[in-house]
Specification:
The protein has 19 helices and 11 strands. The protein is of the alpha+beta class and 418 residues long. The protein has one domain (2-413): Cytochrome P450 (Cytochrome p450, Orthogonal Bundle), CATH 1.10.630. The chain is globular. The structure holds protoporphyrin IX containing FE (HEM).
Length: 418
């Protein structure tokens, strides 16, 4: 519990990052703005350093000398490591070999393999499938009248798209959703012991499930991403069995736990900014830029993290070798020194919108960026075209996550008649 207690005990004289403030998840941006002004480079009370300004975040993400592999972390300064040790003792979690947590040269090898499947042509070929899934969801919503946009559209769409791409069997969606939810909670900068235990249980269950699915796929290969990865594994030692399983898990989780927030929060922001909604509805050709601006504004992944492999100098402060460093993507996206005085306004015609950091930057730049943008454009564009008078009903419910911040419930009257 030491981890959470430390975050809750403010030093009144210093500005410090405190996502435990009530209301933070509903609107983190005023607090992030304060951090940019008063403590843009800081060691948080939970241990990791955090960067909040665009230029610092950009520089960190592009620095090839940094690591994402926990073996390079100095765990003696990590309160999270202390908690993991308290929970697991010697029975620590196995290392994750997914692309997201791997450094070159392994990262380069994994990225080459996976990016072969995420070509622009392959993504574009998914358009009819995505449109069909969206149209079905919109039909259900029309029949509902008043409906939860997250349950009907924002969550099932990316989940079904990645399931189809991977060639997953028709599996227990609710079960996988629960595991995945417990797993991504560990991406938050603050955890409780129960979060750690729940993530461990989910990881064991998910690993066992995916191992079974891979075995099934070996005997019934198809024209899908999992079959391609299995072929790479069988094609020599380019992918070990453990690596194969970890890539399937990470693609599956990254494929839906992020895009749900773009679609859900994106629709909410448009309904709150009717002038912007009208712009898109009246001229759908602006959708490529509009989706970049929504990505900037919403930041479905609010932080990524790196590990310093040598002492670093940011803002005149020394970040020691082995430290975890959080890259404040959402904060960078609202930094006035990069975006100018309109940084906190939603402007679907903003010229430089595409320079947001929502997909990260550098060698770990999101592999699913084109897919996520295509899903977002089709889902949001079709929603506003079909329901031009939709209105939010009551207050939306946030998912309580600091990193993968998004909506859990967004009730909307699709006819706007209520
Ligand atoms: C709006 C939706 C999405 C957002 C905001 C997002 C965000 C991100 C970010 C910030 C990173 C970099 C993490 C880092 O710097 O450490 C990343 C990496 C990654 N994303 Fe996404 N993502 C989205 C959708 C997707 C989808 C749909 C897929 C796959 C189907 C995907 C697959 C990946 C993979 C495999 C990586 C790891 C790349 C690497 O380590 O080289 N993402 N994503």
């Amino acid at each position: 519990m030491a981890y959470v207690d430390a975050m809750a005990r403010p030093d009144e004289t210093t500005a410090f990052y405190n996502p435990l403030d009530p209301g933070y998840v509903a609107d983190p941006f005023p607090h992030l703005s304060e951090m940019r002004d008063l403590a843009p480079v800081q060691q948080t009370l939970a241990g990791p350093w955090a960067l909040f300004r665009y230029d610092d975040v950009f520089r960190l993400l592009r620095d090839p000398a940094l690591s994402v592999d926990d073996v390079n972390a100095d765990l003696s300064v990590s309160q999270r490591a202390v908690m993991y040790e308290e929970v697991f003792g010697d029975d620590m979690l196995r290392p994750d070999t997914s692309i997201l947590n791997t450094d070159p040269p392994d990262h380069t090898r994994l990225r080459r393999l996976i990016s072969k499947v995420f070509t622009p042509r392959a993504i574009e070929a998914l358009r009819p499938m995505i449109q069909r899934l969206v149209d079905d969801a919109l039909d259900q919503m029309a029949a509902d009248g008043t409906t939860n946009v997250v349950d009907r559209l924002a969550f099932p769409l990316p989940f079904d798209v990645i399931s189809e791409m991977m060639g997953m069997p028709d599996s227990d969606r609710d079960q996988i959703r629960d595991w995945s939810e417990a797993l991504v909670k560990t991406l938050d900068p603050i955890l409780t012991e129960e979060d750690i235990r729940a993530a461990h249980r989910a990881s064991v269950a998910m690993d066992a499930h995916i191992t079974e699915v891979i075995e099934w796929k070996r005997s019934s290969p198809g024209d899908d991403l999992m079959t391609r990865l299995i072929e790479a594994e069988e094609d020599g030692d380019r992918l070990s069995a453990e690596e194969l399983r970890d890539q399937v898990v990470v693609l599956f989780v990254a494929g839906h736990e992020t895009t749900v927030n773009l679609v859900g929060t994106g629709i909410y922001e448009l309904l709150r900014h009717p002038d912007q909604l009208r712009l898109w509805r009246d001229d759908p050709s602006i959708s490529p830029n509009a989706i970049e601006e929504l990505l900037r504004f919403v930041a479905p992944v609010q932080f990524s993290r790196r590990i310093a492999t040598s002492d670093l100098d940011y803002g005149g402060q020394t970040i020691g070798k082995g430290s975890f460093v959080l890259a404040g993507l959402a904060s960078a996206n609202r930094d006035e020194s990069h975006w100018g005085p309109t940084a906190n306004q939603l402007d679907l015609t903003r010229e430089s919108a595409g320079s947001h950091l929502s997909f990260g930057n550098g060698i770990h730049y999101c592999l699913g960026a084109s897919l996520a943008k295509l899903e977002g454009r089709i889902a949001i564009g079709s929603f506003i075209e079909r329901f031009p008078h939709a209105k939010v009903v009551g207050e939306p419910v946030w998912n309580g996550r600091i990193n993968l911040r998004g909506l859990q419930e967004l009730m909307v009257d699709v006819d706007g008649s209520g």
